[in-house]
Amino acid sequence: PRVSSIQSNLEELGSLIPSFQVLINLQHECLRANELDEEDYDKIKPILIQKELECQNVYFTYDPKVSTYALQNINIQIPANQMTAIVGPSGAGKSTLVDLLMGLNRPEKGSVLIDGTPLTKDNMLSLRRSISYVSQDPFLFNGSIRENLLLVTPNASEEQLWEALEFAASSDFVRKLPNGLDTIIGDRGIRLSGGERQRIVLARAILRKPSILVLDEATSALDSENESKIQAALDGLKGTMTIIVIAHRLSTIRNANQVIVLENGRVAQFGGFMQLTEDHGGLFSNLLQKQMKAAL
Ligand code: ATP
């Protein structure tokens, strides 16, 4: 997924390019692989996490001149091949933490470690090559489902496309479309429902065969059918890759193996979904109650 080739793909699409912001999002999805030329990129070995991704005493600030930290004293472990959810109020530091874990930002103090080895310039590229990131505002263009899937893995076979769709709980609906994979999905995928769009983007992320899948869950509510389909898709992926979800709707992370609750840049709580739910008076159970009331 070299951005140079993505850029030329986009140029071919001419007027279909929606906006600069979308290009930025797509670059983020491919984790800024454009920092390398193609040959170097192919030489980078992906990383398979054996045990865990870890933060040890991590502090991060966006402005070193001011002594306010976006994250402070973060000590967490994200076990390999499990699903970890990161939750917390707006501005708590969820995206900042994920950027650090992906090597997109560096801690001011402390370290991010992969299986006990600190993240350095060298293994950071391997880490990025191993991550698929699905942003809240993923890029879909007015081409076919096939073209949208092939955008970042142009050499994927028909079989691999269907396999990824299957994992993303999308194969049934794509099969039912009049032109299947060759169905044109409209500007930004407008002819698909919100849930279908998310699942196509999930399929595209899976096609890269990442060892880490990072999902920044869209804030807008999905209907419950689509929500449970995405949950089922993520459940199906559990055990095959490390999944990190920035969750806004707490109902979607019931099946997470562990939940990190952030507040004002610190870890306020950590534990399993049920454990946190039962911690009455805790931030997580308060957030959950608020969301349940809002949904009534
Ligand atoms: P949300 O749920 O609203 O996306 P979040 O939990 O992901 O929020 P972050 O985006 O990580 O929170 O932001 C943590 C803090 O860092 C906030 O105070 C935010 O204003 C600040 N921040 C985030 N990005 C930047 C930036 N690029 N420059 C300066 N400050 C930033």
UniProtKB/TrEMBL annotation:
Keywords: ATP-binding, Membrane, Nucleotide-binding, Transmembrane, Transmembrane helix. GO terms for cellular component: plasma membrane. Residues 53-289 form the ABC transporter domain. The keyword Acetylation does not apply. One of its GO terms (molecular function) is ATP hydrolysis activity. It is found in: Cell membrane. Belongs to the ABC transporter superfamily. This is ABC transporter ATP-binding protein. The chain holds residues 304 to 599 of 599 of the full protein.
